[in-house]
Design a protein that fits this description.
Order of helices and strands: EEHEEEEEEHHEEEHEEEEEEEEHHHEH
Number of strands: 20
Radius of gyration: 20 Å
Distance between the termini: 57 Å
Helix content: 25-40%
Strand content: 25-35%
């Protein structure tokens, strides 16, 4: 039996414990060296049990083909196609998630045949999606955006996956910058709380993951930042990068579409809807548009058009834009 880990993720204090060694290893790797939150009161627990017995369904009624609910409790079989069954039990300000590994033959084979994909799917199914949903119950919404310090400011970087946000962030972190995450956050329109996971970048050193990338520890991690500007990152075709004013409506559209297009969240929406329907708490749908609008309508918005050849420094571009403004 492994020691319990307590971390802060998405503004929630999360306690994790696994009786299965290989699951524990995946969880610890996914925690990316985040500091232990110590004796802070936890708002969510995740307990992975060693038993392969199904969760009892007595007293529960069918919710979907693979989900059952009753008295505020939800059971989901083979959640997200991961091979894990889960039981969610919210109680006041705390939610308890119990997890059991009960795979079919094909799910079990995926663990060994597609290890990189399986690792990411496991994190999503039993950690990321539950904590993002619980954060939405507490007034936040998931965003595919990066909050980071830049030349004395705090930028919220928006844009689709693969546009170059992580590369920009990597350069800022190398110069001593701070960030809540490299990928996903939970936000309420004023602050952004990072989802704890490793940074995924192009490179040779690190644990191999999908799309030819590697995972490395995110340096300069902080749990929360308050952005003072929105920067929409776009690919350009020019020889040099340019920072331009951006219409707030365009910034909202970028934040929202980038979030819904993110592959990391492709299974989240059905997961969150199932939990909302079965527990009867929280929003039927996370308030993504409202949160994006709260940021963009209040903050200065810019568009960063990257050069054809990578090399732009976010700090320099932000400083130029602020000088013009």
């Amino acid at each position: 039996m492994t020691k319990q880990a307590v971390i802060e993720s998405c503004g929630e204090t999360l306690a994790m414990h696994s009786e299965i060694d290989w699951v524990d290893a995946l969880l610890q790797e996914g925690n990316d060296g985040a500091p232990n939150a110590g004796h802070s009161a936890t708002t969510m627990s995740i307990d992975v049990e060693a038993t392969s017995s199904p969760f009892p369904l007595r007293g529960l009624t069918p919710l979907t083909r693979t989900a059952w609910s009753g008295s505020g409790e939800v059971v989901i079989a083979d959640v997200c196609g991961s091979g894990f069954d889960v039981r969610m039990k919210p109680a006041g300000s705390r939610a308890d998630l119990t997890v059991r590994w009960r795979p079919s033959a094909s799910r079990s084979a995926a663990r060994f045949g597609l290890p990189n994909r399986f690792k990411l799917l496991t994190r999503e199914a039993i950690v990321h999606y539950p904590v993002l949903w619980w954060a939405s119950v507490h007034g936040k919404a998931p965003l595919h955006a990066i909050a980071c310090t830049v030349s004395g400011s705090v930028a919220l970087l928006a844009g689709p996956g693969g546009v170059g946000k992580s590369t920009l962030l990597q350069r800022e972190l190398a110069d001593g910058g701070r960030a809540t995450s490299d990928n996903l956050c939970a936000a309420d329109g004023r602050s952004a709380w990072g989802l704890v996971e490793p940074m995924r970048i192009e490179g040779e050193r690190g644990a191999r993951t999908t799309h030819g990338r590697v995972e490395v520890t995110l340096p300069g991690r902080v749990s929360c930042l308050m952005p003072d500007q929105v920067v929409v990152v776009r690919r350009g075709s020019g020889e040099s990068a340019a920072m331009l004013p951006c219409d707030p409506e365009d910034a909202i559209r970028s934040l929202v579409t980038g979030t819904y297009a993110a592959g990391e969240l492709s299974r989240f929406w059905a997961y969150a809807a199932t939990l909302a329907a079965g527990t009867g708490i929280g929003p039927a749908h996370p308030q993504v548009v409202d949160v994006a609008r709260a940021f963009a309508s209040r903050l200065d918005c810019f568009e960063l058009r990257l050069a054809r050849t990578p090399g732009a420094r976010l700090g320099e571009m932000v400083s130029q834009a602020e000088a013009i403004a």
